[in-house]
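cron nightly-structures :: item 1 of 1
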Amino acid sequence: MIPSDSRIAEILRTTRVIALVGWSPNPDRPSHRVAEFLLARGYRVIPVNPGQAGRRALGETVRADLSGITEPVDMVDIFRRASEVLPVVQAALAHLPGLRTVWMQLGVENAEAAALAQAQGVAVVQNRCPAIEIPRLLD
């Protein structure tokens, strides 16, 4: 099921904390640029990247994986290949009890992961970018 523009706008309006899986320290990478955009728009962004774990970025400590996040998270924004999404969603559902949204970036869709999240009452957005949707739907 593809969420309507009004549902996506509601998700973006009510989200406060985003775990960004696949964050890169390279400013030329989309995950870095989107994280900076979200931070500038007032979201708390928790970067997740095992190769950068322990480093400080975006005012946060980079986490190796989702199990390293102890604070409430509203959304997981996934910058991974579609074939790598299912384990990310499984970890998110196991370790982030208040999770409300799984967001898969542009070009990323995974029907099995989406169905798993939706079966647990978590909203799913696929093949979209919040840095595009926020200006389009909220500005």
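cron nightly-structures :: done
The chain has a mean pLDDT of 96.
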